[in-house]
Design a protein that fits this description.
The complex is a heterodimer of chains A (about 110) and B (about 140). Chain A has about 110 residues and is α/β, with parallel strands linked by helices. Chain A is built from four helices and six strands, in the order ββαββαβαβα. Classes of the chains: A alpha/beta (about 110), B alpha+beta (about 140).
């Protein structure tokens, strides 16, 4: 899995391309922690190219959400693909991790 | 028992790298059986990776030999089945019932997720090997 980010106005967009599994989950936590430490506490994780997520990946997203909130911000997810949507729904975590159609929409009403 | 249409087997050390290998095996398996519906492929893949990850993360060696992971997957006309095994492993510790973690918990959802994804999950222990058998009735 490859990570990248860019700051777009009031939020940082993190892209996570590949499989978000027990291999990459710790790396996502580390990456987002660094983005937050760099001064961005409003994070959008763009999952457009995340073809797969398991419960380890879900746990990492929740950890990143908590880290963003502890820093006074928030974390939202965007462009969720069918398998990721299925995992979010089956675990009822779609109520906690709000999904938006695009990264641009995620903080557009704040 | 009906005809096996396609299969894959993995056997190696129960280490992080094994997860990507098993996932690659699943991706190539679906290319052999394109008639298996996308929903069945997606749910079954997720269940197998959850089970294999559970072994890599939690299985403890019973003796001096390291725990090894085995994943044997078969596709039959209306049945997807995986035998996910931990060799040289202690019996699983504690309850194997799915947990109900709080919404901000970062772990503990794997077993419940597996049960939601497949039709049946059974557990066998024989000769120091723990095996979870995941079966999903496919729509063909």
């Amino acid at each position: 899995m490859e990570f990248s980010y860019e700051v777009n106005g009031s939020y940082a967009e993190v892209k996570a391309d590949g499989r978000l599994n027990m291999v990459s989950a710790p790396k996502l936590r580390e990456f987002v922690t660094d983005v937050i430490a760099g001064g961005s506490n409003r994070i959008v994780v763009n999952l457009e190219n995340t073809a797969f997520m398991d419960s380890s990946g879900l746990g990492a997203l929740i950890g990143c959400l908590k880290a963003a909130r502890q820093a006074g911000g928030d974390l939202r997810i965007a462009a969720v693909q069918p398998q990721v949507k299925m995992v979010l729904q089956l675990t009822s975590m779609d109520k906690v991790l709000t999904a938006y159609g695009t990264a641009e929409e995620a903080f557009s009403n704040d | 028992m009906t005809e096996v249409l396609a299969s894959r087997s993995f056997h190696g050390l129960a280490a992080v790298d094994a997860i990507e290998s098993v996932h690659d095996d699943l991706d190539s398996l679906w290319l052999d059986v394109p008639f298996v519906q996308a929903m069945d492929q997606m749910t079954f893949t997720t269940a197998v990776i959850e089970s294999a990850s559970n072994i890599v993360q939690h299985a403890e060696p019973a003796g001096q030999d390291p725990v090894e992971l085995g994943v044997d997957i078969t596709v039959r006309p209306t049945l997807l089945q995986a035998r996910v095994s931990a060799y040289n492993a202690k019996p699983p510790f504690g309850l194997m019932e799915p947990a109900t973690p709080g919404e901000h918990a970062e772990s503990g959802r794997g077993l419940a997720l597996i049960q939601a994804l497949v039709t049946t999950v059974t557990f066998e222990r024989q000769d120091g090997t723990n095996t979870w058998v995941l079966s999903r009735t496919s729509q063909g």
